User: Which sequence fits this backbone?
């Protein structure tokens, strides 16, 4: 098969490319990525020379460019990871989120229709379901939970999901959608919670916890997400949504304390700062459908995954040190400089 992976120079897309090249060496993989601030070509350095891999710098909103690539490569499957993905950035500047996440997805699907693709898979998020209250631990998101979004990011992802399902119903496009909980692992951009706290801890910088830090996220090791997506594109039913998550709910404050502990740093680095606007309280996935239909279960326990992740950031400092030495400094000053310290 020829598989186009969009957004493959980002966190999850790159891990998925490594997974594919290892697990399915018979497949040809084309990575299409615009290389925004979140895309990093050095992440793909180890696979660049493989004969069954090709990297193409392209914006998914560039209809002509995408059409030409399909003409050249005649892909069988498209897995769409390309997105603006950071909630805090979406609060600052929503428009690029609508452009890439919704318009870009529609361009890909139009071209998929034109070329009679075998499967278009949309990588989505549990954030499209909104949040759950902290005092109802019995509640979980299922695939039939109504979409109910909080941020411009989650709204743009929900808009894309609706469009993907509409292309299935209206045009019969063979699609699938997966909605995953928070991922962690190697190559995550250091503006997201876990890598940011690791980097700040190592530099003895304050650890900015939004509000009380009681918000709950359902963390999944990135390799387990990659395995789930691969099962869905090969064995999952067309026109279906699959939730992906491993019942691993943790409060932000507990994650940050654990990182301090693992790195031998004092919890006094923790600084409570002004909360995120519209901050979702709790995400929790019910993964029953993907388990019963496709036999998927997460394989990495959080204690092991977080240690592996911390080890990876310790061993790969040049990768993230390079990132946080550039434009990231301006981002950090802007996003954190004027946040009030709560105590
Ligand atoms: P990321 O921000 O690390 O990577 C996104 C990649 O997309 C980057 O390489 C970027 O250059 C590329 N990109 C952005 N705009 C583009 C455009 N217009 N054209 C082509 N490429 C473009 O994101 P991630 O964390 O790897 O997330 C990947 C996907 O998974 C996203 O769709 C996200 O919504 C979804 N998701 C992420 C998580 C998570 O915890 N990170 C959880 C569930 C779902
Ligand atoms: P994030 O990694 O941005 O993922 P998402 O918002 O998609 O869940 O944030 C995870 C949680 O950590 C979220 O509740 C916000 C919180 N958070 C902080 O407390 N401080 C930070 O500096 C960041 C980036 C996030």
Assistant:
């Amino acid at each position: 098969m020829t598989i186009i992976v969009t957004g493959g120079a980002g966190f999850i897309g790159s891990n998925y490319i490594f997974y594919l090249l290892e697990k399915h060496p018979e497949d040809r993989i084309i990575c299409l990525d615009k290389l925004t601030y979140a895309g990093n070509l050095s992440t793909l350095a180890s696979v660049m020379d493989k004969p069954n891999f090709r990297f193409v710098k392209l914006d998914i909103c560039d209809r002509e460019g995408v059409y030409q690539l399909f003409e050249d490569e005649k892909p069988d499957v498209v897995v769409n990871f390309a997105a603006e993905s950071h909630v805090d950035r979406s609060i600052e500047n929503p428009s690029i989120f609508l452009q890439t996440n919704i318009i870009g997805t529609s361009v890909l699907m139009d071209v998929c229709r034109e070329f009679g693709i075998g499967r278009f898979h949309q990588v989505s998020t549990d954030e499209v379901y909104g949040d759950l209250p902290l005092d109802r631990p019995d509640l979980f998101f299922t695939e039939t939970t109504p979409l109910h979004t909080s941020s411009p990011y989650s709204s743009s992802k929900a808009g894309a999901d609706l469009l993907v399902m509409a292309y299935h119903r209206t045009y019969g496009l063979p699609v699938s959608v997966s909605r995953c909980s928070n991922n962690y692992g190697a190559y995550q951009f250091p503006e997201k919670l876990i890598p940011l706290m690791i980097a700040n801890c190592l530099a003895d910088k304050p650890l900015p916890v939004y509000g009380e830090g009681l918000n709950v996220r359902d963390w999944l090791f990135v390799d387990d997400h990659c395995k789930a997506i691969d099962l869905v594109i090969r064995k999952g039913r067309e026109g279906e949504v699959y939730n992906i998550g491993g019942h691993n709910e943790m409060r932000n404050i507990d994650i940050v304390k654990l990182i301090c502990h693992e790195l031998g740093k004092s919890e006094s680095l923790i600084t409570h700062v002004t909360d995120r606007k519209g901050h979702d309280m709790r995400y929790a996935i019910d993964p029953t459908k993907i388990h019963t239909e496709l036999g998927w279960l997460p394989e990495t326990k959080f204690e092991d995954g977080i240690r592996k992740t911390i080890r990876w950031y310790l061993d790969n400092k040049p990768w993230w040190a390079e990132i946080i030495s550039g434009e990231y400094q301006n981002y950090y000053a802007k996003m954190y400089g004027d946040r009030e310290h709560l105590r």
